[in-house]
Amino acid sequence: MLGALASFCLMAIGAKELSGELNTFQVLFVRSSISLGVVLAIIAVSGKTDLFRTQRLKWHSFRNISHLAGQYGWFVAIGLLPLAEVFALEFTVPFWTAILAYVVLKESLTARKLIAILCGFLGVLIIVQPGFKQIDFGVVVILLAAICYSFTYISTRALAGTDAPLTILFYMCIIQFPITLVFALPHWESPNSNQWLWMAAIGITAMSAHYCLSNAMKYADAAIVVTMDFLRLPAIAIVGALFYAEKIEVTLLIGALLMLVGNIVNLYQPKRKRVASDPQES
Asked: Which of 4, 63, 220, 268 could form a cystine bridge with 213, CB 3.0-4.6 A?
C-alpha cells in the first residue's frame, strides 16, 4: 500500500507539472505506449498467446472508452483544482459503481450500500457546498470522470467471468493506444527532457499503483486496504500545500472522511461471517 500511495501521488504530481504544457491526449498516448510495451513483453515471456483471444470485444470497447474518458477528465481536473480536492472527489467512484451495478448488472442494493451511497453524496455536498460557493468547472469534470471510472468497474466485473486479468489489460492498451494517438497528433509538441521524464513517470506509476493495490488485496481485507488508500488524500494535500501553495480546507477533509466511512461500512464483514464463508480459516 505504501507503493500504491507513492505511485498515485507521483502520478498526480506529474499530471500537475505537465498541465498547460502538453496536450492531455499526448500524455495519455505516452502512458498507453508504456503500458502496451509492458503487457506485450509479459505475454511474450509467458508464451500465453491465447490471452489475445476474446469473445467480448463490445464489452472491452465500452470499458476502455469509458476508462479513457475518466483518465482524460482526471488529468484535466488536476490542472483546474487543488490536488486534494481531485483525490477527495475521486473517492466517489465506489458509490457511483454501486448505483450503476444496480441499474446495469441488476445487483441488489443492500442497506450497507445505501448507507455508503448516502455518506458519499453527503461528502460531496460538504466539499462542493452548492448554494454557498460557486461550483468550479473542475468539480464537474472530476465528478464526470468518477462516473466514467464507475462504468469501467462494472464492465470489468462483467468481463472478469470470462477473460483473464491480463487479457483485460491487453485490450485496454490496444484500444486506447490508437485513440490517444489520433487525438494527440493534431496538437503534438516536441517534449523537452523534463517533460519526457514526467510522462515516463506517469506511465510507470499508472501501472505500479494498480499492481500494488491489487497485490495489497491479497494480504489484507478490502476494508483495511480502502482505509489505507484514504491516506493518499492527506499525503497529496501536504504535497499541494508545500509545492503548489494549495490551501487545505476543513470541509474537504470532513467530506472525504464521510466517504471513507461509507466505503468501510459497505466493505466491512463481521469476523464470524468471514470465518463461516471459509471453512479452512476456522
From this structure: 4
